[in-house]
Amino acid sequence: MPASIARLQRVLLMSLAIAFAGGAGAADIGQIKVAKGQVTIERSGQALPAEVGARIQPADVLKTGADGSVGITMSDNSLLSAGPNSVLVLDRYEFDSTTSQGHFDASLQKGSLAVISGRIAKQSPDAMKVRTPTSILGVRGTEFVVSVND
Amino acid sequence: MTSPGGSLCRAPALWALVALLGGCATQTGTVVLLPEKDGGSTAVTVRQGDKEVVLDSPYAAARQTTSGPRAYTSSPQEVEAQFGAALAAQPGRPTSFTLYFVEGGDQFTEASQQVLASVLAEIAKQPVPDIVVVGHTDSVGSAAANDALALRRAEVVRAMLIGQGYAAASIAAVGRGERELLVPTPDNVAEPRNRRVEIIVR
């Protein structure tokens, strides 16, 4: 058993070294954990590749193509995943990890989105909102899906 | 009276009547509340202008329309058909491990040293792991002192993981002090089960 754990650790070391070669910036608020097909992150007008392991920052826009889907884990443990032909904007994200206080506003402009809310919504029920072009969803908890028709 | 929605809107003879009843609405989207894994209470509100629908039971749903949200009951089949791809892309739920400390210090209890092996195995399973070490205290001492102690406990565990070769940038240390007692107690009660760190692997 100890030998296999040691082996696991060695494998892990290498994968961590690769995954975190770029390091985590202070502005990082989440990470892409799942990406299939065409997925891009738009940040400050630039389109960046949205690969597994890529870090998410406030105001990022996630876009998926007709064959695309993407899943992200936020620093408060919220899980957001978008299906094909989706545009998801992370409008505002603030999280104090000591108090669990924060704000999380996201917009689904089109497509489909599955959400499991995290510590921000658990701490204060009005602190997480998901907007669509016609509605505002107040997230008291925890798991839901939302779509926006073309 | 429920609105027939888009189809009637296309029949000119009925248009005026339907419009008069406020029923000529185009559907712009759907919201469905899903069941909780642990059966806990849950709710999402859907608001448009001054109209609001509260979804608070499994598969409670709302159609977003140009004239406001309309409640209905969805089904697992409808959710799979409309949201299968989004749900398939959902990241794995964060896994939490709890380790306990001897009173007032930053040494693990003996039993908790065993839990570390499980933590390492879970980290190895993640394609791009990130790790959050959350320190907690019992209610003995001031809130400020406990914030400091909780963070110190978290930092000790973080340093230990870094010492094992994990990249520092992938491990965050957080102190929650006495805000999240595992076993609720009045202030200034020594409670071993509250002296702990959680290691969250995600």
Count of helices of chain B? 5
Largest sheet of chain A: 12 strands, mixed
Radius of gyration of chain B: 25 Å
**Structural class based on helices, strands and sheet pairing of chain B:** alpha+beta
Strand content of chain B: 25-35%
Q: Got a strand count of chain B?
A: 9
- Low-confidence blocks of residues of chain A: 7-25
Largest sheet of chain B: 4 strands, mixed
Provide a count of the helices of chain A: 2
Oligomeric status: heterodimer
- CATH topology of the largest domain in chain B: the name is 60s Ribosomal Protein L30, Chain: A
Q: Based on helices, strands and strand pairing, what is the structural class of chain A?
A: alpha+beta
H-E order of chain B: HHEEEEEHEHEHEE
Principal-axes shape call of chain A: globular
Could you characterize the architecture of this molecule?
The complex is a heterodimer of chains A (150) and B (202). By secondary structure, chain A is α+β, with helices and mostly antiparallel strands. Chain A has two helices and twelve strands. Chain A is 15% helix and 48% strand. In chain A, strands 1, 2, 3, 4, 5, 6, 7, 8, 9, 10, 11 and 12 form a twelve-stranded mixed β-sheet that branches. Chain A is globular, with a radius of gyration of 17 Å. By secondary structure, chain B is an alpha+beta fold. Chain B folds into two domains: 2-89, no CATH class; 95-201, OmpA-like domain (60s Ribosomal Protein L30, Chain: A). Helices cover 31% and strands 25% of the residues of chain B. Chain B is built from five helices and nine strands; from the N terminus they run H-H-E-E-E-E-E-H-E-H-E-H-E-E. Chain B has helices at residues 6-9, 12-20, 76-88, 110-125, 143-163, and strands at residues 27-33, 43-48, 51-55, 60-65, 70-73, 95-100, 131-136, 171-175, 196-201. In chain B, a hairpin with a 2-residue loop joins strand 2 (43-48) and strand 3 (51-55). Chain B is elongated. Chain B starts with 5 loop residues before the first helix and ends with a strand. Residues 1-8 of chain B have low confidence and may be disordered. At the A-B interface, helix 1, strand 1, strand 6, strand 7 and strand 9 of A face strand 1, strand 2, helix 3, helix 4 and strand 8 of B. Strand 11 of chain A pairs antiparallel with strand 2 of chain B.
